[in-house]
């Protein structure tokens, strides 16, 4: 494989291949590169979703399943969580994790967040963490998410935030972080090109206000994009 040439943001096959390849290192690198803070940001997404017993929830682009498992613990008794991802390797890790907590009502399936094939209105809520940026068409991803939610259902979409001012302090810190910390650390795990993809994917990612506009077009009734971590991350809070 030629990673530097093959990892094209927006190309589904290339994105899937990337996540198949980094799956064994993904959780460890996530913890290292964010100093564990991704857990805090994910908890902020969960706090917005406010999961309750009995609910049917979705974790779209679930990866190795950390959010799906947290949600599953909240929807007991009577609820269920479905995690969906396009790549098999992270899903296998998610299933292994779930098997260690066999009492949790969670299942994982291979699928495309742009066209899940799931029934409309089946979900009381949905999360998508660090997934939207990886989709070929973020608008289509939000539309599919809206279709899956019952009226009034909430969705929390967490990702890096693309600063509106590319010359501002937030954007400059982000470039420093991605180039001087993320890529060199990933190099040690032989995953330099894979993590260089992060900055490339951010370059084509809608800003917060643009995400709000896309969510409006997708038919959400309440919409707010909230910067987290001093503007490095963003949480799109939605009501169907
Ligand atoms: C950066 S990971 C995030 C994983 C997890 N949600 C987390 O927060 O750690 C992005 C995930 O999106 C998945 N993905 C990318 N495109 C997808 C698509 N079209 N449908 C479903 N999953 C997709 C990838 O396979 C990958 O596991």
Structural topology:
Blueprint: H1 3-6, H2 12-33, H3 37-49, E1 56-60, H4 66-75, E2 80-85, H5 88-99, E3 106-110, E4 123-129, H6 138-148, E5 149-160, H7 169-188, H8 192-203, H9 208-217, E6 222-228, E7 233-239
Parallel strand pairs: 1-2, 1-4, 2-3, 4-5
Antiparallel strand pairs: 5-7, 6-7
The structure holds S-adenosylmethionine.
What does this structure look like?
This protein has helices at residues 3-6, 12-33, 37-49, 66-75, 88-99, 138-148, 169-188, 192-203, 208-217, and strands at residues 56-60, 80-85, 106-110, 123-129, 149-160, 222-228, 233-239. The chain has 240 residues and is α/β, with parallel strands linked by helices. It has one domain (3-161, 207-239): Vaccinia Virus protein VP39 (Rossmann fold, 3-Layer(aba) Sandwich), CATH 3.40.50. It has a 7-stranded mixed beta sheet with strand order 3-2-1-4-5-7-6, sandwiched between helices. β4, α6 and β5 form a beta-alpha-beta unit. α6 (138-148) packs across α9 (208-217). The termini are far apart. The protein binds S-adenosylmethionine.
Largest sheet composition = 7 strands, mixed
The average pLDDT is 94
Number of helices: 9
Which range does the strand content fall in? Answer: 15-25%
Going across the biggest sheet, name each strand in turn: 3-2-1-4-5-7-6
Helix-strand category: alpha/beta
Query: Spans with pLDDT under 50 lasting ≥5 residues?
Result: 1-5
Assign the CATH superfamily: Vaccinia Virus protein VP39
Bound molecules: S-adenosylmethionine
Name the CATH class. Answer: Alpha Beta
CATH topology: Rossmann fold
Number of domains: 1
Number of beta strands: 7
Through-space gap between termini: 41 Å
């Amino acid at each position: 494989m030629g990673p530097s040439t093959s990892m094209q943001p927006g190309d589904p096959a290339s994105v899937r291949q990337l996540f198949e390849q980094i799956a064994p290192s993904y959780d460890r690198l996530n913890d290292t590169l964010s100093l564990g803070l991704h857990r805090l940001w994910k908890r902020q997404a969960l706090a917005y979703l406010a999961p309750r017993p009995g609910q049917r929830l979705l974790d779209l682009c679930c990866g190795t399943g950390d959010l799906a498992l947290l949600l599953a613990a909240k929807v007991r008794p009577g609820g269920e969580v479905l995690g969906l991802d396009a790549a098999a390797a992270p899903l296998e890790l998610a299933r292994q994790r779930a098997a260690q907590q066999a009492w949790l009502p969670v299942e994982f399936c291979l699928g495309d967040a742009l066209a899940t094939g799931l029934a409309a209105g089946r979900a009381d809520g949905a999360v998508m963490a660090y997934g939207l940026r990886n989709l070929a068409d973020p608008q289509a991803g939000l539309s599919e998410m809206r279709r899956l939610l019952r009226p009034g259902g909430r969705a929390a979409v967490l990702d890096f935030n693309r600063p509106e001012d590319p010359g501002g302090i937030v954007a400059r810190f982000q470039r420093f972080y991605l180039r001087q910390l993320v890529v060199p650390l990933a190099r040690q795990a032989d995953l330099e090109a894979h993590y260089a993809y992060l900055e490339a994917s951010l370059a084509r990612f809608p800003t917060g206000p643009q995400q709000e506009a896309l969510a409006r077009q997708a038919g959400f009734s309440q919409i707010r994009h909230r910067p987290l971590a001093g503007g490095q991350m963003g949480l799109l809070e939605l009501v169907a």
